[in-house]
Amino acid sequence: MGRILVIHGPNLNLLGTREPEVYGSTTLAEIDAMLHELGQELGIEVESFQSNHEGAIIDAIHGARGRCDGILINPGAFTHYALAIRDAISAVGLPVVEVHLSNIHSREPFRHRSVIAPVAVGTIAGFGSDSYLLGLRALANRIRSQR
């Protein structure tokens, strides 16, 4: 059984009540439950982490090295400018899939650019909570193909 670290970035702790017209009404706890259930189906242990603090996210990424087989990350607003998170992902050498609930490319122009995408194996955006599930499946397939 492999292990995947799921990282939820800033403001995602408010899912379900934060701008439901953009992010949906599913809570973070519900997303985590869906991920854990899918992980069991895929034979993967899913560990979830959420922080509103860039340094804590970097520490979590560093902590995954040697302990996890991959990282599924929704960096939230850090997507667009957090070079330190990008560098941490690059440094640990784990496959990473970036996910977003909304389609960042159909929103405000400042959201169109991801500094994370160049160091991720892929990005899934615009499918609400299904983005996480699609991302977990894709990451699990990637990890299996590398073994």
Automatic annotation (TrEMBL):
EC number assigned by the record: 4.2.1.10
Pathway(s) annotated for this protein in UniProt: Metabolic intermediate biosynthesis; chorismate biosynthesis; chorismate from D-erythrose 4-phosphate and phosphoenolpyruvate: step 3/7
Top-level EC class: lyase
Assigned keywords, A-Z: Amino-acid biosynthesis, Aromatic amino acid biosynthesis, Lyase
Highest taxon, organism lineage: Bacteria
Molecular function GO labels: 3-dehydroquinate dehydratase activity
Site residues (Transition state stabilizer), renumbered to this chain: R18
SUPFAM superfamilies recorded: Type II 3-dehydroquinate dehydratase
A Pfam family recorded for this sequence: DHquinase_II
Gene3D superfamilies: Dehydroquinase, class II
InterPro entries: DHquinase_II, DHquinase_II_CS, DHquinase_II_sf
Active-site residues annotated for this sequence: Y23, H100
Residues that bind substrate: N74, H80, D87, L101, S102, R111
Reaction(s) catalysed by this chain's protein: 3-dehydroquinate = 3-dehydroshikimate + H2O
Purpose of the protein: Catalyzes a trans-dehydration via an enolate intermediate.
HAMAP family hit by this protein: AroQ
NCBIfam families registered for this protein in UniProt: aroQ, PRK05395.1-2, PRK05395.1-3, PRK05395.1-4
Family: Belongs to the type-II 3-dehydroquinase family.
Oligomeric and partner information: Homododecamer.
UniProt protein name: 3-dehydroquinate dehydratase
Source organism of this protein record: Symbiobacterium terraclitae
Lineage: Bacteria, Bacillati, Bacillota, Clostridia, Eubacteriales
Gene for this chain: aroQ
